Every structure is written in structure tokens, then in C-alpha cells.
Amino acid sequence: MAPQTKAVGKNVPDGGMRVTPTGMVRTAQWKIMPSSDTMVKGSTQELLLDAAALDRYEAFTADMHAILQKYEAAMRQMVVRFEILDRDLSIRRNRNPIHHIESRIKSPVSIYEKLLRYGKEPTIGNLEEYLMDVAGVRVICSYKNDVKNLMGLLRRQDDLEIVRIKNYIENPKPNGYRSLHVIVRIPVYFMDSKEMVPVEVQIRTIAMDYWASLEHDLKYKAVAETHGLDIAGELQECSKIIEGIEARMQVLANALDAGQAKHTKLAK
Ligand code: GTP
Ligand code: MG
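Above: the input record for the complex with guanosine-5'-triphosphate. Below: its predicted structure, written as C-alpha cells.
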């Protein structure tokens, strides 16, 4: 008899939110990167489980909502911190470093899949100990210098604990991926306790985000016929070209900033 299986994850609620100057719009959830074809059926967000694994999954996710609430609180606070910085810079420096902010809570199915991928029992304890990206905030900046400046401002927030930084802008990944990743812990206050909850913050420019989104898409398209194209090589090349364009746009932005500063000084 074929083992009883059930696909879960199809109807996982979408936690994605795009914050724009005019309000918030829901977005598609970030896609998870399936690591093993036997585990993951279809493209994303779907696991094929046998009866025993299904019981384990259901037991694991039963307690999940209360836990995710904590991560959601941390995520929302991080978003607000970036909005405050953007507003302050806008008022006092006439700069708007942030183009937009995206945030998401990892779905229970992705959490479960990642714990198994890390070789960990799917338990709430392991979730809290090993997964640093249950809450994710992505800050999309206009220019490369904005990324650095925001990182500097984040470091000055003395109630934030910076757990880990991966600078894929200084050191791009071999495939061409560029972005600044920071794991922070932010205090969340409850009725009778305070907890430092981790949030994965990705800070990148519009250009870096453009490349990453398309690369992510291409990675999951079954490319049976590449028409002789070296896809990986092309992606690396595109990443370099985008980096060059970004540098040129930065020069323009610097010139405009300098011009504006001079103008303000003269007006005083
Ligand atoms: P994972 O979370 O399992 O990936 O491991 P990690 O914690 O070491 O991750 P890392 O900080 O390197 O990357 C975390 C996230 O960055 C991923 O979940 C993606 O959202 C994004 N990312 C990393 N590498 C790539 C890449 O090569 N291409 C794209 N498009 N996104 C990437
Ligand atoms: Mg991750």
C-alpha cells in the first residue's frame, strides 16, 4: 500500500507586506529555496510527508502561532525603526535613503523544512535556538552609500544586539549576489518579561534587489533548454554590469547632494 501522504503548506497564510510611502500592500511571500527534491514537492512551500512525519509536523505547528507572534512583534518594530530613520533623514538632511521596505514571517512549513535541513529535530526549542531568520526585514535603498549609512545608524541603536553581519557587497557571492545581511536581536516587551528576538535584516539597493529577484526566479525555472547560454556566467556578468551602473548613479547622487549643500549654505 502506498504510504499515506499529504502536501502541506499550500495554504500557508502570506505574511509578506510591502511598505511604501503611501501605505502597506501585501506581497507574495519570499520563496524558500528547496534544498532537496525528495523533501520538497513542486517549486516552493510544499512538503510531501508520510503519516508519521505528518503527525510530527502537526504537533510542531500546533504551538507555532503564539511563538510567531513574538517574531512578528520584533519584525514590526524593526520596520518602524527604519521608517523613523528615513523620516528623520528626510526632515533634517533632505535625503530619502529608503526606497521601500519588505518584511515577512517565515511560514511554518519553511521553518519545519529548514530545521530538518540543518539536521535538527523540529521543536520550538530548536526553532528559537537555530533559526535566525524567522522574522525578516528587507530594506531597499536607492544608492549604495545609503546601505552603508543605514548600517552605521543601526549600529548606534544601543538597545539592539548585532549578532552577525554578512557583507555580500564588499564580498559578493561567487554567483554575483550582493546584499548586506545583519542578524539583530531587538527587545520585545511582554506583560512580565523582556526578550531579545532575532530578526534577519537584508539591506540592499534597488539594483541589487533587481538582480537578486531575477536570479531567484531563474534558479527555480526548470531550464531544460538553455540555447547554449551559460546562465551562471551570464548572471555573474549581469551582476558586474549592474554594479558599474550603480557606481555611476552614485556619482550623480553625490554631485547633486554637493550642489544642494552649497545652495543651502549660500541661502543662509
Ligand atoms: P540560509 O538562510 O539557509 O540561506 O543560510 P544563511 O543564514 O547562511 O543565509 P545567508 O545570510 O547567506 O542568506 C540568507 C538569505 O539571503 C536567503 O534566504 C535569501 O533570501 C538571500 N540570499 C542569499 N544568497 C542568495 C543568492 O545567491 N541569491 C538570491 N537571490 N538570494 C540569496
Ligand atoms: Mg535565510
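Notes for the reader.
Strands lie at 5-8, 17-20, 23-26, 47-50, 98-105, 135-141, 161-167, 180-189, 194-205.
The longest helix spans residues 231-267.
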